[in-house]
Request: fold
Amino acid sequence: MCPALDGLLALKDELADRYVVVHAEVYTDDTATTVAPAVTNYAMTYEPALFITNAEGTIVERLDAVFDEVELRELLLS
Reply:
């Protein structure tokens, strides 16, 4: 697992009543040859990335590349 996902999972109990978390892998197959639709749809060229949306599904925040539990806590629980 990646540190960014580890940080998010560490906060899952605190986030449960405020957020719905959706995780998307980069590839859809074990051979890492078929790119997942989420990667294609958002034209992502790197990972990890965390998109925060409002209730209507509009992206209101985004964290890219390297972030940890401290940054996640500040953003999501403040």
The mean pLDDT is 86. The chain has one domain: 3-77. Residues 69-77 form the longest helix (9 residues). Helices lie at 3-10, 12-15, 37-41, 69-77.
